[in-house]
Amino acid sequence: MQVTNQTGDLHEVPNEGGKTNYLLPFILITSLFFLWGMAHGLDGILIPHLKKACELNNRQSTLIDTSIFFAYFIMAIPAGIIIKKIGYKNSIITGLLVFAAGAFLFVPAANNRTYELFLLALFIIGCGLTILETSANPYAAILGPAESSSTRLNLAASFNGLAVTLAPLLGGVFILSGVNHTPEQMASMSEAAKATYLLEEASSVKLPYIILGSILVLVAVIFYFMHLPSMKSQQTETEPKPGFFSVLKFSHLSWAVVAQFFYVGAQVCVTSFFVRIAQKEAGLDEKTAAYYLGIYGFLFMMGRFSGTFFLKFIKDYILLSIYCIISAFLCLVAIYGSGIYIIYALGGIGFFMSIMFPTIFSLGLVGLKSNTETGSSWLVMSIVGGAILPYAMGTLIDMKHDDIQAGYIIPLVCFVIILSFGLYGHKVKMNK
Known about the structure:
The protein has a two-stranded antiparallel ribbon. The chain is built from 19 helices and 2 strands. The two termini are 35 Å apart. It is globular and about 65 Å long. The protein is an all-alpha fold. Residues 1-10, 13-18 and 233-238 have low confidence and may be disordered. It is 75% helix and 2% strand.
């Protein structure tokens, strides 16, 4: 049991027996990290797949990222309000059901091969993910001693990494057909044959997303019937109510918001064009490229697990800085290297990038006390970097005449900015 205080800290409302069991709640919360990892892990498959099925250019294909991550920006403030109004448990259930609704919308989108409807479905999924992440990240952080919050977040996020490993492998089996026609072959097809081919490509997404949506509904039902410790913010009557913008007086939170913007942008950039660069520069076919994207996910997961271990011995901001330096170097390899070495470099980025999101998140929440929910909303809202930077990368690639390697300049710049947060931006300081 946590002792309540008068400082405005988040605290647990104990159950009737006066005892708190953290294990089962933590397992349930960790399952959410896995589920939204599946959603994001499939994005790297959807981008090249819908680019083919809906006949898109690079910039248009990145609207998949824009749709899902722009939802984070739109929903971050409402998500924080929802948590305050209905609590963590009901917010999680709401997020799961919204997530499921977006997944089921893939069926009519595929039946009509309508790219705009796919984008709407992804936006709805993003809204559900925003509510889930705004609820689950701070809940996992406070579900135990404050000094081990980074460790808990990285452990939970490790299962997000497991999903990032499995999603491309499953997507490669159930979504990608392995059939790629050249522009000349497409031009030589009759209109009926071309329409049939493109509709078959679009329809392959239906079964995976029906299954995903059904699992989400089942998990929502489990959460409904399970008891979770109630976490609330205790404030004295004289303590001013924290404002949404006033929380930015904590300079380390402001820095964390910027760092998180560029981190998410970097992560999405790396994975969004992974399959295409593997095909174009390493000469791999579509399904083999998806397999290597799964290996990238495995390295991402191993980075999370190993990072959780290293954080027991190394300060979180120091490990973050070291990993940023290595990731920036690997970006240079991806830009100037050739062949399979580019894929190896991207896999290495996955490993060293893995701890960045939860570490930035926990560093940004240090000392916020009653401002924790508001600070969490800002950090989740900064995920909009995943909507903006991949679009910039796709635009750059199109400007460079489909030179995908040149596009990796974008994540290189991102890692330099995150490094500045790790070196000095993380220091807790309140601006007057």
